[in-house]
Amino acid sequence: MRRALALARRGRPAASPNPFVGCVLVKGGRVVGEGWHARFGGPHAEPMALARAGKAARGATAYVNLEPCCHTKKKTPPCVPALVRAGVRRVVAGCLDPHPLVSGRGLRALRKAGIPATAGVLEEECERLNRPFFTLIRKGRPYVILKAAASLDGRIATACGDAKWITSPEARSEGHRLRARLDAILVGIETVLKDDPKLTAHGEGRDPLRVVLDTRLRIPPSARVLRDGGRTVVFTAREDLRGRGPRRGAAVVRRVRRTKAGLDLREVLGALGEMGVGTLLVEGGARVHTSFLEAGLVDEIWLFLAPKLIGGAAAPTFFEGRGARRMRDAIALGLTEVRRVGPDLLIRALLD
Ligand code: AOF
Ligand code: ZN
Questions:
Q1: Is the CB of 285 under 6 A from ligand 1?
Q2: Cβ 145 vs Cβ 178: under 8 Å
Q3: Is 174 a catalytic residue?
Q4: What tens digit of pLDDT does each residue of 249-289 get?
Q5: What is the 19 CA–ligand 2 centroid distance (Å)?
Q6: pLDDT tens digit string along 186-221?
Q7: Domains and CATH numbers, the chain
Q8: What's the whole-model pTM score?
Q9: Is the CB of 75 under 6 A from ligand 1?
C-alpha cells in the first residue's frame, strides 16, 4: 500500500480535482504491474497497472489506495469490470471512494464476481492524501488552504504597511512549492494594490490559476497578476462590465453576488469548482483571510511564523473581524505539523 501511495503522488497536481490513485499488482511476492492516475480525464491507476502486467495480472493481488470505481457516469470506463476481466485474485483498497455512486459498491461488485475485496489498509494516510477530493464530494466545493506569514505576535505587516519580508527566503520558497501543488491561488484587491504580486510558483512547478476578489473592479490593467503569463479570474460585484473586461489583459472577469461581508464566497468557490479547481490557496490579506474563516470555508491553515516581534496596535494580523466573545467560541484547530523552515517555523493545522 505504501508503494501504491507513492505512485498515487505522481499524479499531483495534474489529476486534480480527481483523486490521486496508485495501483500495485503483486503475484508470488513479486510486483508484476504498477499504475497511477496521471492526469484529470486520463486513464485510472488500475487499467494502467493491468496493461503493464499483461497476462501476469491473472491471479495477482491488486493494492490500490482508493476503492476501484464501478459506475459509468464518468469520463473513463469503470475499473471493477477491468479487474474482473483480467482475472485478479484479490483486491486490497486503502479507503473507500466517497463518491455517492461508489462508496462501498466497488468492493461489493468485486465480491459478487467472486473476488475477495477489502478496504482499510493505511486508511488514514490514504484519506489524507485525497482530503481535497473528499471535501469536493462531501461539501461540493474546492478544498481551501489559508496561508499566512506572520511575526511571533501574529502580525502580517507593520502599522505603516511594510510586509517585505516577514519570513525568510526558505519559508517563501516553501510557499511557492505549495502554490505549485494547488490548482488556484486567491488574494484580495488590497493585496494586489499594495504588493502587486505575480502569484506564480516562481519556477517551483506548475503555476496555479490566479484569482482576485475585487468588489468594485479597481484592479489596474498594469497589475502583474494580469500580465506575466498564466490565467487569471477576477471576481467582482460591479454591474457595468461592458468595455471593462478586455482592458484587463488575459483575465476573465466574473460577476458574483454581494453579501454583507463582501463578495459571496460560496458563489466564488462554486464558480471555481466549475472551472476544475479542486484545491485553492487563500493568500491574503487580512480581510480575505477573515472573511473565509468567518464563513467557515477554510479546511487547512499553513502559518509561517518568523521569530520577530512587530508590535503596534494598528499592525494587521491575519485573522481579525468581530472576534470570539467566549473562549469556547474560538475556532478550534487540530495541529498536523510543526516544522522549522530555515530560521522560521511552519505550523500546519486542520479545521473541521
Ligand atoms: C479508480 N481509480 O485511478 C481513480 C478513481 O471521470 P473519470 O472516469 O476519470 O472518473 C472519476 C471518478 O473515478 C472520481 O470521481 C472517483 O470516484 C474515481 N477515481 N477511481 O478506481 C482511479 N482516479
Ligand atoms: Zn477507476
A1: no
A2: yes
A3: no
A4: 567 899 999 998 899 999 999 999 999 999 999 998 899 99
A5: 10
A6: 999 999 999 999 998 888 888 899 999 999 999 998
A7: 2-135 (3.40.140.10), 140-351 (3.40.430.10)
A8: 0.92
A9: yes
